[in-house]
Amino acid sequence: MEQKHILINIGRQFGAGGKGVAALLGERLGIPVYDGELLQKAAEESGFSPAIFRKSDEKRRLWRFGGLFGLNRASSYAPSAIDGTELFKFQSQAIRDLAQKGSAVFVGRASDYVLRDMECLDVFICAPLEDRVRRVCERTGMDAAEAEKYILRKEKARKEYYNFFTFGNWGVASNYDLCLDSSRLGIEGCAEVVIDFGRRAGLI
Hints:
Blueprint: E1 7-12, H1 18-29, E2 33-34, H2 36-46, H3 50-56, E3 63-64, H4 71-77, E4 81-82, H5 84-101, E5 104-107, H6 111-114, E6 121-126, H7 129-140, H8 144-166, E7 178-181, H9 182-200
Parallel strand pairs: 1-5, 1-6, 2-5, 6-7
Antiparallel strand pairs: 3-4
């Protein structure tokens, strides 16, 4: 029997554990998970330095180039600036290339929008702010006040990125097939529900 082509897109609030859910899904389904790797692939495809993509990751701001250039593209653009839209295009193409090659779990980076013409399971992982603050404190050693500011800043950038490039509304339930609260289910519970839902929906 032919193996099913599984594509899962994970949107997530910052600190809600979306990356952990994605990792478990990849492990249990035996398929690759793409998060930071997307930046590396986009950089390789475009010829720009990976540092450019790290700096613009899930941000829509304009980045001015200089020492960040990959050598083989520097002469084409320096010393001008490039809009985040250009980087978004490279990264989106990397997502589509990987999705066409085989099953995958994609974390963030508006992958639900980028793959909107393909059969995917779109999931959003959320949690109350206090739970996300606690998780970030445990992970980084920040105090609660620092962690809350950090979360809100990162989430603002993530929301602006998604809304700008998709013309949609980040985190709105109607954008997704399934929205889960990781504070209720835990990371493992979320992964189990995603798999069960996906199988019932014929997407896994």
